[in-house]
Predict the 3D structure of the following.
Amino acid sequence: MNLDEHHRDVLVIGGGLAGMEAALEASRLGARVIIASEQKVGRSGNSVIAEGGYAAPFGHGDPRDNPGIFYEDILRSGQFLNDRTLARTLADGSCRAVEELCGAGVPFRMEGERYAQKHYPGHTYPRNCYLVREGGIHITLPLLEHLRRRSIRLLAHSYALRLLVAGGECCGALFIATRSGSIFAVRARATILACGGAAAIYLHSTNVRGATGDGYVLALEAGAALRDMEFVQFYPTIMLAPVRNFLMDFSCFGRRAPLLNRLGERFLERYAPAALEACTRDVKSRTIFTEVREGRGVKGGVVMDVSALPREELETYTPRFCRLFARRNLDPHRERIVVAPAAHFFMGGVAIDEGCRTGVPGLFSCGEVTGGVHGANRLADNALSECQVFGRLAGEHGARYALGRPLQHETAPAWEPSGGRSAGLPPFPRWMARLREIMWEKVGIERDRGGLEEAISGLERLREEVDESVAGVTGPSLYRVTKVRNAVVTGLMVAKAALARRESRGAHFRSDFPEQDSSFSRSIMVEGDGRGGLKARLSGG
Ligand SMILES: Cc1cc2nc3c(=O)[nH]c(=O)nc-3n(C[C@H](O)[C@H](O)[C@H](O)COP(=O)(O)OP(=O)(O)OC[C@H]3O[C@@H](n4cnc5c(N)ncnc54)[C@H](O)[C@@H]3O)c2cc1C
C-alpha cells in the first residue's frame, strides 16, 4: 500500500516537555525536526497538568546544598538501584535546566535575584523551585513559542503504531491519524521516543487518560530492553472529599498537616515515628492503604488536617488549592479533607545510557518513558528536571547521530492492512476497565505472588482477546485497539517484573517478601522473548 511519507533528520514522538526539549535542542544543532504526537504538542501529556516544581540544588534555600548532596539524595531515595551515571547527570544538570527555562520565559517564583525553593521529603535541603502560578501549561506554552520560531514541524493527532526498523536500525515510525484513520510514515535518521508514562493503567490515577504506556511497547517491539518496570509511584494524598481528584501537594509543609484515621489517631506515629508526615511518598501511600484496609479509614481514605497552616502560607505555597476552595465557598480550616493514594509515576522504562541511546541504533529516548534515573523511587520534582536534562541530551545525541547519515528505508512493506471486520466496534471501555481493575487490585500498592500470578493470567487472556480484534480492525478503531493492547502489554510488564522481584524495595512492596534482600540489588530487565511474549529477568552482576 502506498503511504504518505514525511522525511526528516530527527523524528520526536511525543509532545510533552521531554519531547519539546529534545526537538528544540536537535533543531539548535541544525537538524530538520518533526514532532508527532497523539494529541496536541505542548498541550498534552502529564507535562501540562504537572504542578510545575523543579528540583535544582542552587543552594538558595540553604547555602549548604550542592549537586553532590542532591546526587546522594537521588540514590538514597532510589534505594541504590539507580543508574549512577544517569543520576549524576540529573544532579549536575538540573540548575542549568531551570535557568534556561527561566530565560525562555517560564515564570519561576523569585526572591530578589534568587529562586524561591521549597523543602520536600527526601531532599536534604530546600531545593524545589516552583512557578508563580502552578501548572505545567505555563512551561509548555513558552516552549511551544520557541518550537514555532524554529519552524519545527508539529503533527498533532498522530499516533505511532510501530517503529520502523531496517537492518536492526530504527529509521522512523508508522502513524495513524487518530481522526481520519489514515496511515502514514515518518522516515528519519534518528528517532526520539518521548511518549511519557503509564500510571493511567490503574483504576485510581493522577495521570491524563492517555498515559497508558505506548512508548514502552514501541521500544520493546523495536528490540530495546526495559528496566525497573515494577516500580510504580503512588501519590499518597489525592483528595476524595470535599472535592474529588485534586492532588494535595502539601508535603512541603512537612509535619504541620497531620494525617488522621477514623479514630482520630495520627497513625504515622506507628509507622514512621521520626519523620511522621515528612516521610517519602512510598511510605505514606502504604500506611494510608493499610489504615483503610484494616478498617480505620474515612470514606475510603484518611483525613488531612490543615487547620494549623496559616492562610498566608497556604496562599503562597498552594495557590491552586486556595483558588479551588474559594470557587466553591469552602474554608480549608473548617472542611474535613479526605485523601487517598493513586498511581502517579513510572520509575521504570526504556533502558538508556548517558546519551539517551536505547541500544537500538537510531533510537533515543527521554522523559518518563525511560528508566534508570530514579531507581526504586522518585523524589518530588525530579521528573520535570529529568525531562529538561535528558530531553536536551536526547536532542543533542539524536541530532549528532542523524546529521550526515543516509536515510534508511525499511525493506518490508510499511503497512499491509488486513481484511475488514464486520463484528462491530470492539468493547474498548470494557477492556480498559478490566485492565485498570486488575492493576489496582493485584499489582497495586501491596503485592504478593498469588495476586501477581492471577493478574498475569487475567492480563494474558485480555491480551488474546484484544489481539484477535487488532488482526481485523482498520480506520480510527485501529488506533483505539492498539492503544488498549499497548496498555495491557504494559500492565503485563509491570506484573511480570513485580513477580520476579521477590523482596520489598522503594515503591515495590511484596507482603510475602516484606524485607529488602541484597541479592536483588540489581534491576529486573523486561525484554521480548522472540515469540511475541515477554520475559523478566534479574540483570547480571
Ligand atoms: C498531576 C501531576 C502533577 C505532577 N507534578 C509534577 C511536578 O510538579 N514536578 C515534577 O517533577 N513532576 C511532576 N509530575 C510528573 C511529570 O509531570 C511527568 O513525569 C512529566 O511531565 C512527563 O513528561 P514527558 O514529556 O515524559 O511525558 P508527557 O508529558 O506525559 O507527554 C507524553 C506525550 O506523548 C504523546 N504520546 C503518547 N503516546 C503516543 C503515541 N503512541 N504516539 C504519539 N504520541 C504519543 C502524548 O500525547 C504526549 O504529547 C506530575 C505528574 C502529574 C500527573
About this structure: The chain has three domains: 25-230+347-402, 235-343, 428-516. The first strand starts at residue 4 and ends at 13. The radius of gyration is 23 Å. Residues 221 and 304 are 44 Å apart (CA to CA).
